[in-house]
Amino acid sequence: MAATTSTSSYLVDVAMLTDSQSFLVTHIMVDKAVLTEDAELSEGSQVTEGSQVSEGWKSLDGIPCIMGGIQALVASLGGTLHGQTSRDFPWKTLPKELARLGYVLVNYPDKTLMPGELQPTLSRTKGIHDLPQQHRISLINCLKEGTLTIQAVTNDAAHLRLTTSKDPVVIGDVPSACSMHSCGQRAFADGHIDRKGLPYIQQPPSPTSHCHVQVIVEITWPPPRPTSIMLPPPHSASITWP
User: Disulfide engineering: 172 pairs with which of 125, 153, 184, 237, CB 3.0-4.6 Å?
Assistant: First the structure.
């Protein structure tokens, strides 16, 4: 059954949406969440003025949550993502957009499809909807928990290294101990992805920890000898001559 996202006035079939339609729905749902938050503020409460980023996207699920969360990260540094149109979310071109802005996503979840990465099992890309369900859950958890962060480069030289794909614009998290990869993944502005990111470092055992090791010793016994028969000693006869 296709997943649906509900509001007070409509139901949206998420599986049938394009990136631009999902982006529009995300805007509507985030705006509604923000209005709800504003309506709940009492008249006596005070809000600090400044470039504050709404967290209304955290009340969403699925693709709209991912779009809203990434938008919020970019907006936290004063940036705005540009798609092919104002209604497009630039998932396929997100690495290039990050490079243009001079931003780097850090701690992108491991074993998760990178922005712009093609799903090997699909013959035609559907943009952000290529993300498998488990990948969506991992990305949503990282966004809501705040482990996926964003940084801005501080000088023109570093910015140039991003736009020329010398440095990555998406840095993956350290792979887990059970991963087949020893280093995390990285994505660059030109779209290529590698596995030369953060390495997994095995932690040495604590000196105070006690490890109980079970040792199994296998003993092989020699084959039994054949049964020996004791022969009586020969009888000695004494002859007495008269």
Answer: 184
Q: pTM for the full model?
A: 0.64
Q: Are 114 and 132 in contact (CB under 8 A)?
A: no
pLDDT in tens, 191-236: 999 999 888 777 665 555 555 666 676 777 777 776 666 666 666 5
Distance CA 35, CA 29 (A): 10
Return the ∠ at Cα 69 (arms to 63 and 74), rounded to 5°: 130
Centre a 10 Å sphere on the Cβ of residue 147 and count the other Cβ atoms it contains: 13
Nearest to 69 by CA among 91, 100, 41: 91
Distance CA 207, CA 77 (A): 44
* Spatial separation of the C-alpha atoms in residues 206 and 84, rounded to whole Å: 53
Q: What is the CA radius of gyration of the chain?
A: 34
3-state secondary structure of 186: strand
